[in-house]
Structures are given as structure tokens and as C-alpha cells.
From TrEMBL:
One of its GO terms (cellular component) is cytoplasm. Its cofactor is pyridoxal 5'-phosphate. Pathway: Amino-acid biosynthesis; L-tryptophan biosynthesis; L-tryptophan from chorismate: step 5/5. It comes from Rhodoblastus acidophilus. The gene is trpB. InterPro entries: Trp_synth_b-like (IPR006316), Trp_synth_b_CS (IPR006653), Trp_synth_beta/beta-like (IPR023026), TrpB-like_PALP (IPR001926), TrpB-like_PALP_sf (IPR036052). This is Tryptophan synthase beta chain. Gene3D superfamilies: 3.40.50.1100.
Length: 454
């Protein structure tokens, strides 16, 4: 028998608590009300979220208990496996050890149900029967649709138009779970109609889709809003990824030197990285932690650390974060989940503190890495996840060049079974690298709100 590849935990070892990095970071800049620019209170968020999620959003407790009914559903796919990518190591001829935490084993095919299930459960406990949300690639939308089907909640998803057109099977999955999927910008909301008036051929953006979903929730008291990334409580829910990985590395005899994940809004990155960062912040060893983003939407590497709105219509609170500006519309490259103008406030704070690094890649290099990974390990990564694969391969090749046997761990946040159209375009030569419009970025950053708190 050759050396072990999969490192798994028993269902009884699903974490009982979420890890809250707010307990170990310095006090962050306040979240501000969009109209008054005063710090928001729980009552300001009540039109959007049930109180239990609001309390999680503002909590500074290190551990927050995961409800038993939520853990019971997690048993459908958790704990997810930690896998040693031995065949990829051989293909690269690297002395590095490469591991990946595989989140594509969930029913929806990505890490997103880790937050969709608890968000739906807390809404159900509050008597909510209707939720609205946005989605880019569709991983979050299909995950919330799945969660809604379990709890009898009607879900309406506003999907960024270019992804809506690129990924019809992801839309079909949402509908299979019982959700309604609408191309954004749409004619159903004021913010959607405004976006279409400005550009009838708009490819859409997560900022516009968020505006549409938030508008519906604010105008209808029986509807709440659910978000798939960026906010503290979403990142909190994802920390079960890293907590499991820490336990699994105890089984391997290794300890990661480099932690890698793709980053759009920050959910899967924080899910893997924050528990390891927490160890460091509490006196443990320092690791390199790398957030990988698309060069066509380079929020961390090119964005400004400033207060900004989370959406294009300026309906959401002001958060200090790395941002390209709320009016920025990225080109329609295939990693739809990474096409967001802002980065989580907590991830941005960690970057400002020098706790993490950031790297940006063009999509052709990422698809090349995704294909190389698939041919070695058999799993076709989602376009978003190929960014982490690209970085992991580059780090392994660096180890080869330097003669270092470092241990690398990356988050394979989802499979690409609904993204094969993008792979078809890659193989046919139709997939091209896309750059953002520098003038549009400058204009968007020039429109950042003036905030006295800065």
C-alpha cells in the first residue's frame, strides 16, 4: 500500500463552534450607516437580517456555538477531506508537499452551503419564509436554494447577467432546488432599471445584484436578505473549513508553511485561513497566507483601503475595506464568484496588518493550472478555485527552484462541473485574458464616499 492520500475525520468531529477572528484582531473601523455615517446598531440591520445573525456580525466572542440542527445537516458532507496531492507533486517534480481541502463534496458543489445552511436556519427560527440574494458564478445562489429547500423558505436569486448567460446549468440547479433565478440587472427593481438605463448591455456586477436583492428585502417586511460572502457572520460560518484542516494536519505529521485560497469577497479564503491566523495571533508559529484574486478585478492588489458601499445603488452600510469603488463593473471573465468590487472588512484588515499576502492572476494562467491539476488529481476545479491552484503550483515550483521541502495547503473551494463551457472555450482558444478599464477604475475610486471617520 502506497502512502496515505486522504485524511478524514469522523462526523462526530464536525466543529461544535465557529471561530471568530474578531476576538484576536485589533478593534476594526466602525461600520457606518449609509445615510447618517454614524456607526450602525442592531436596529439598523433588522430590515435585512434576523437578530441572531446580527449578533454574530458584531460579536467579539472567540467561539460561537453551531446549532445542533445545523451540524446535523452538515453531516451530509462534512467533515470534508484533506487530500495530499501526491500525483501533482510528482508531475511538478517538487520537494514541496501539497495538500488541498476539498469543499466540492457538498451537495451544491462548493463551500457555500457552510453559510447558506445556518443563515437559512436562523431565518427559519425567526419566522422568515422568503429570502433574496445575489450570486455571481451561481455557487452561492444554488447553495441558498438548497438551504431554502430544506427549511421551506422561498428563495429569489439575482444572478449577474454575464454569469446567468454563461452558466445555464447552475441556473437549472437553483430551479431544481425550488428557487427563482433572475438575470441582473433586471427590470424588477429601481436599482436594476437604473443600471439598465445607464447601460442597456450591462454585463451586470455583484454590486448591482446586491442592490436588487437588498432593495426587495428593504421594501418588503416579510422578506430578508442573505449574503454569500464579505460580512463577518458569513466568514465566521466558513471557519469550519480551517478548524477541520487543523485537526486533519495532526493526522498527517505535517504542518502547513503556506496557506492559499482564492479571494473575491473573502468567504472561502477566511474559512481556511482565519483559524490558522488565529493560532498565530495567539502566539503560534507564523505561516505565509496568500489570498489570490483575478487580475481583472484586483481588489486587494490594486484597490484602495477606504470606506465604501457594498453595492452599486448605495443601499448597504459603509465598510472600511479594500475596494475598486462601488460603481466599478469588472469585465465578464469566467470566475464569476471573484467579480466583486470590495473585499471583506476583516480580510482587508488582516492585509493592512501584514498578516496575509495578495497575488493576482489572469484567467488563462489559472485555467492552465486547473487543467494540469485535473490531469494529475482527477478533479476539475471551478474557475474561482483555479486561482488557488495556480498559486499553489507556483509556490511548489518556487520550492523546487530553492530546494525547499515546504508544506503547502490550498482550499479547493468547488468543482467545475457547471463551468465546462469555460473549459471548452479555453481548449478552443476562445478564452482570452481580460483587463479592467483603468479609466473606469480611476473614475470609480474618485467617487468613493467622503467619510469623516477616516
Amino acid at each position: 500500500m502506497s502512502a496515505q492520500v486522504k485524511f478524514t475525520l469522523d462526523e462526530t468531529q464536525i466543529p461544535k463552534y465557529w471561530y471568530n477572528i474578531a476576538a484576536d484582531l485589533p478593534t476594526p473601523p466602525a461600520v457606518l450607516h449609509p445615510a447618517t455615517q454614524q456607526p450602525v446598531g442592531p436596529s439598523d440591520l433588522e430590515p435585512l437580517f434576523p437578530m441572531e445573525l446580527i449578533l454574530q456580525e458584531v460579536s467579539t466572542e472567540r467561539e460561537i456555538e453551531i446549532p445542533e440542527p445545523v451540524r446535523d445537516i452538515f453531516r451530509l458532507w462534512r467533515p470534508s477531506p484533506l487530500i495530499r496531492a501526491r500525483r501533482l507533486e510528482q508531475a511538478l517534480d517538487t520537494p514541496a508537499k501539497i495538500y488541498f481541502k476539498y469543499e466540492g463534496v457538498s451537495p451544491a458543489g462548493s463551500h457555500k452551503p457552510n453559510s447558506a445552511i445556518p443563515q437559512a436556519w436562523f431565518n427559519k427560527q425567526a419566522g422568515i419564509k422568503k429570502l433574496t440574494t445575489e450570486t455571481g458564478a451561481g455557487q452561492w445562489g444554488s447553495s441558498l436554494a438548497f438551504a431554502g429547500s430544506l427549511f421551506g423558505i422561498d428563495v429569489t436569486v439575482y444572478q449577474v447577467r454575464c454569469s446567468y448567460d454563461q452558466k445555464p446549468y447552475r441556473r437549472a440547479l437553483m430551479e431544481t432546488y425550488g428557487a427563482k433565478c433572475i438575470s441582473s440587472p433586471s427590470t424588477q427593481t429601481e436599482s436594476g432599471r437604473a443600471a439598465l438605463a445607464a447601460n442597456p448591455d450591462s454585463p451586470g456586477s455583484l454590486g448591482i445584484a446586491i442592490s436588487e436583492a437588498v432593495e426587495i428585502a428593504v421594501k418588503n417586511p416579510d422578506v430578508k436578505y442573505a449574503l454569500g460572502s464579505v460580512l463577518n457572520h458569513v466568514l465566521l460560518h466558513q471557519t469550519i473549513i480551517g478548524q477541520e484542516a487543523i485537526k486533519q494536519f495532526e493526522l498527517t505529521g505535517d504542518d502547513p508553511d503556506v496557506i492559499i485560497a482564492c479571494a473575491g469577497g473573502g468567504s472561502n479564503f477566511a474559512g481556511l485561513a482565519f483559524p490558522f491566523l488565529g493560532l498565530t495571533l495567539r502566539g503560534g508559529r507564523r505561516r505565509r497566507v496568500i489570498a489570490v484574486e483575478p487580475a481583472a478585478c484586483p481588489t486587494l492588489t490594486r484597490g484602495k483601503y477606504a470606506y465604501d458601499y457594498g453595492d452599486t445603488a448605495h443601499l448597504t452600510p459603509l465598510v472600511k475595506m479594500h475596494t475598486l469603488g462601488s460603481t466599478f463593473v469588472p469585465p465578464g471573465f469566467h470566475a464569476g464568484g471573484l467579480r466583486y468590487h470590495g473585499m471583506s472588512g476583516q480580510v482587508s484588515q488582516a492585509y493592512e496588518l501584514g498578516l496575509i499576502e495578495a497575488r493576482a492572476y489572469q484567467q488563462l494562467a489559472c485555467f492552465e493550472a486547473g487543467v494540469q491539476f485535473a490531469r494529475a488529481e482527477g478533479i476539475v476545479p471551478a474557475p474561482e478555485s483555479t486561482h488557488a491552484v495556480r498559486c499553489a503550483i507556483d509556490e511548489a515550483l518556487r520550492c523546487k527552484a530553492e530546494g525547499k521541502a515546504e508544506t503547502i495547503c490550498f482550499n479547493l473551494s468547488g468543482h467545475g462541473h457547471f463551468d465546462m463551457g469555460a473549459y471548452i472555450n479555453y481548449f478552443s482558444g476562445k478564452l482570452v485574458d481580460q483587463d479592467y478599464d483603468a479609466a473606469e477604475l480611476a473614475s470609480s475610486l474618485a467617487e468613493l464616499p467622503q467619510v469623516a471617520a477616516e
